[in-house]
Design brief:
Alpha-Beta Plaits; alpha+beta; 17 strands; 3 domains; five-stranded antiparallel β-sheet; seven-stranded mixed β-sheet; Nucleotidyltransferase, domain 5; about 15% strand; 20 helices
Length: about 525
């Protein structure tokens, strides 16, 4: 695992670029500063995909990705293996001229990150900056003006104080010191830019150089300064690049057009859109189109696991399909199911720390591992058990999961997945149930209690003493219908959307959704 920070980004970038360009596929994962902005924005089995997108958009707009993981997988044909390189990026959104950027945190997310050994010192002191397209244009236009006085005008008070202190030290060095060099801990890219421009433009015997952690000032001859000025890169471009380091990675991933794999990947994609591309659009369709343009092929291992469980009912016994449970399954008790599947060979040179869940780099690696294992099982089911005795090709693996491309899992909604490259599925959950309370002794709390034994359900007020019930699967809906068929207190029938269209329109706008067995918050690790 390579830990990528602001201080080593330039050194590691060629390795990252080479790994991405030579990969057969790339897996991603992200850790967030928060996910839920309001308690009332709860997911429901009544949600349409458009409803769900708008709810998630409201939830995540104030939060950010704080850690991003990438794992590249390259197939080695004659070794029955994939070689992988993993990279873990700490991301920190530094303020730019004209815009003082903010980070919002959710306390539960802070606790979660602390529990899983997130290094806040690296995040704050050595995190990698990024810009989305609007901020990139804002900064580019600003720097194109080349007006140093205008840049000074937009400094924060603390930055002004820091700049004045550096200038005082530089002035004293120039006037009194016999030393030919001075080194100062200037880490702010904007202050570095100002000092570069100021000293180079106003003094013909001073030269400046910098890295991410400091600036050095050198006394030189005018002839040497003239020569060095011709060799130096554009200072505006250097400043812009310092703010766009992870944006460079995002653009590399998109331009490579390699297919992307993630586990329960919808939130990752939404955060990536708003953080590295553009603010999330109001239109769900526009969001889908944008993501499909950026990443034409995406596989969601959460969705694949549901499809695999339907195909292998006898062999598969996991009760949950979180990333950790799936990885443990395929590396222990379920290893027989993917017998002779390609080995995953981790680049030993980048193996610097112990594998751990909920570190974005390692989670990206785990997602890639279970993707290969599940693809192999699909292959065996399609081509027969003979594949267990020979090396499977990369093309064979991909052909067996191709029908699942761009199908993105949706937790607890009216549909079970989004389709990023076409029409979304027509209703895949059970039809809603219409419940009428015939006994005055039965209220909504009692109703929820009675239905909770049939699994996860959501209940929504419909009309006077009438409720709609959404069940998570067809078996639950059938069991409820049969169990209350002759009940004297509760009448349960299948709901006709056509017949009650007017009522449901009113209900959806005015009724609150109540949870059945429990509220399933959409957790990243589920």
């Amino acid at each position: 695992m390579e830990e990528v920070l602001d201080s080593n980004f330039e050194v590691l970038y060629p390795q990252i670029e080479n790994a991405v360009n030579n990969a057969n596929f790339i897996t991603i994962d992200a850790e967030f500063s928060g996910m839920y902005s309001e308690k009332r924005l709860i997911h429901s089995l009544f949600d349409t995909l458009n409803d769900r997108y708008k709810t998630l958009k409201k939830n995540i707009q104030q939060f950010t990705i704080v850690q991003f993981g990438i794992a590249t997988f390259r197939h080695v044909p004659f070794e029955n293996a994939y070689k992988t390189e993993c990279f873990n990026f700490y991301l920190f959104p530094r303020s730019i001229p004209l815009k003082n950027r903010k980070i919002s945190w959710q306390v539960t997310s802070l606790n979660f990150l602390c529990k899983h050994n997130f290094d806040f010192n690296k995040f704050l002191n050595d995190g990698i900056c990024y810009l989305n397209e609007p901020d990139e244009k804002l900064l580019t236009d600003y720097l194109t003006q080349g007006d140093l006085a205008n840049i000074l005008k937009h400094l924060l008070f603390e930055e002004e104080m820091e700049l004045n202190e550096y200038r005082n030290q530089i002035s004293e060095w120039m006037a009194r010191s016999e030393q030919t060099t001075l080194k100062l801990p200037v880490t702010n890219p904007t202050l570095q830019y100002i000092l570069h421009k100021d000293l180079r433009n106003n003094y013909n015997n001073i030269w400046t150089v910098s890295d991410t952690k400091s600036m050095s000032f050198l006394k030189i001859t005018p002839d040497k300064q003239e020569y060095m000025s011709k060799q130096e890169n554009n200072l505006e471009e250097i400043l812009l690049n310092s703010f766009m380091r992870f944006s460079k990675i995002f653009k590399l991933l998109s331009s490579s057009k390699k297919f992307i794999v993630g586990h329960n990947v919808l939130l990752d994609l939404m955060f990536m859109h708003q953080q590295f591309y553009k603010p999330l659009p109001d239109s769900y369709t526009e969001f889908k189109n944008n993501i499909h343009t950026l990443f034409p092929e995406i596989y969601d291992t959460k969705f694949l696991s549901f499809e695999l469980r339907k195909l292998c009912k006898a062999e598969v016994n996991w009760k949950q399909n979180s990333l950790s449970i799936l990885y443990e399954y395929f590396t222990t008790t379920g290893a027989f199911l993917s017998f002779n599947s390609p080995k995953i060979v981790l680049n030993e040179e980048s193996f610097s720390n112990q594998k751990s869940y909920h570190s974005a780099g390692w989670d990206a690696y785990f997602a890639g591992c279970i993707f290969v294992k599940m693809a192999h099982v699909f292959c065996v089911k399609k081509f027969g058990s003979g594949l267990e005795e020979r090396i499977v090709t990369h093309s064979e693996l991909m052909s067996c999961v191709k029908k699942f491309v761009n199908s993105i899992n949706i937790a607890r909604s009216n549909e079970m997945y989004m389709k990023f490259d076409g029409e979304d599925p027509v209703l895949s959950r059970p039809e809603w149930l219409l419940v009428k309370l015939k006994s005055p002794s039965i209220d909504i709390k009692e109703l929820i209690k009675k239905f909770s034994s049939f699994g996860t359900v959501d209940v929504m007020p419909f009309s006077h003493r009438c409720f709609l019930v959404a069940a998570t699967n067809h078996n639950s809906a059938i069991n409820i219908l049969q169990s209350f068929k002759n009940n004297s207190e509760i009448q349960v029938t299948r709901y006709s959307r056509l017949r009650y269209a007017k009522h449901i329109t009113i209900g959806l706008w005015s009724g609150a959704v109540l949870s059945g067995l429990f509220i399933w918050l959409l957790k990243k690790y589920f």
